[in-house]
Amino acid sequence: MSRITLNSKCRLCRAEGCKLYLKGVRCNSAKCPLEKKGAVPPGMHGVKRMKKPSDYSIQLRAKQKAKRIYGINETQFKNYYLKAKNMKGLVGQNLLTLVELRLDNVVYLSGLASSHSNSRQIISHKHVLVNDKIINISSYSVKIGDIISLDSKTLDSIKEDIETRVKDLKIPSWLEFNKNQFTVKIATLPEVEDLQNGIDINLIIEYYSR
Questions:
Q1: For residue range 89-111, what is the model confidence (pLDDT) as tens digits?
Q2: Is the separation of the CB atoms in 181 and 149 below 8 Å?
Q3: CA atoms of 154 and 25, how far apart (whole Å)
Q4: Separation of CA 71 from chain center
Q5: Backbone phi, then psi, for 155, in 5-degree steps?
Q6: Domain 102-188 carries which CATH code?
Q7: How far is residue 57's CA from residue 53's CA, in Å, rounded to a whole number?
Q8: Which fold has domain 6-96+198-208?
Q9: H/E stretch holding 168
Q10: Distances 11 to 18, 85, 123 between C-alpha atoms, Å
C-alpha cells in the first residue's frame, strides 16, 4: 500500500476536518494542528476552497476517512465491501466486522500499540501472537475466542507504556483486556454502535452502490 509519512498524517486529519488519530495518543497533545489552527484544509487556499459539498463528495469523504483510519488502501477496502455484499446479513454490519477484526486494528484498540501504524510495525516484526502462534500479517482476521498477546521480550520493554495508555483508554466492549497478563480476547463481534471514530458506514455503502 502507499506509504503515509509522519508529516503527512496531520495533513490528512486537516483534510478530513477531524482527528483521525493516525499518531495515536500523540494526537491528544497541544501540538496537534487541529488544536492550534482548527479544521482548516491544508494548502494556501484551504479556507477559500470551503464550499457546500455534494452528496458524492460527502460519501467519498466518509470512505476516505475510513480507509485512512484503518490504514487500508483502495483495493483492499473495496474487496472488503465486495466480500461483505456476499455475506449473510446487512452489508454495513458485515463491512464493519471485516475491518474491525483485522489484527492490526485489534492490537491498536486494546492499547498494545500506540497507533495503527505502530500496530502494523510490531506485527510485521513478528512480536504479536494469536493463540500463542506468531502472526505477521496485519490484515489477519481474528475470530471470537482468539487471544492476542505480545512476545515476552517486547512486552517487558513496553509494559510501562501499555499500562499508561490503558488507564485512560476506552476499550470497545467486544474486547476483553487482561490487565495482569496484557492479553486481549475477542469476546463478541463488533457492532456499529461500538464505533468510536465517527465513521458513517451507510455513506460508504452508498458510495460503492452508485
A1: 999 999 999 999 999 999 999 99
A2: yes
A3: 20
A4: 7
A5: -60, -45
A6: 3.10.290.10
A7: 6
A8: Ribosomal Protein S4 Delta 41; Chain A, domain 1 (1.10.1050)
A9: helix 152-168
A10: 11, 32, 26
Question: By the 8 A CB rule, do 123 and 117 touch?
Answer: no
The strands making up 147-150's β-sheet, listed across from edge to edge, are 133-134, 128-130, 147-150, 183-186, 175-178
The per-residue pLDDT for range 21-66, each reduced to its tens digit, is 555 555 555 556 555 555 566 655 555 555 678 899 899 989 988 9
Q: What pLDDT is stored for residue 65 in this prediction?
A: 87
CB atoms within 10 A of CB 97: 20
Q: Provide the grid cell at 157.
A: 520493554
44 phi, psi to nearest 5 deg: -70, -20
pLDDT at 27: 55
Q: Which three cell numbers mark 109?
A: 484498540
- Give the pLDDT confidence score for residue 1 in this predicted structure: 43
DSSP 8-state assignment for residue 22: T
Q: Where are the domains of the chain?
A: 6-96+198-208, 102-188
The CA angle 65-89-100, to the nearest 5 degrees, is 35
What is this structure's pTM? 0.78
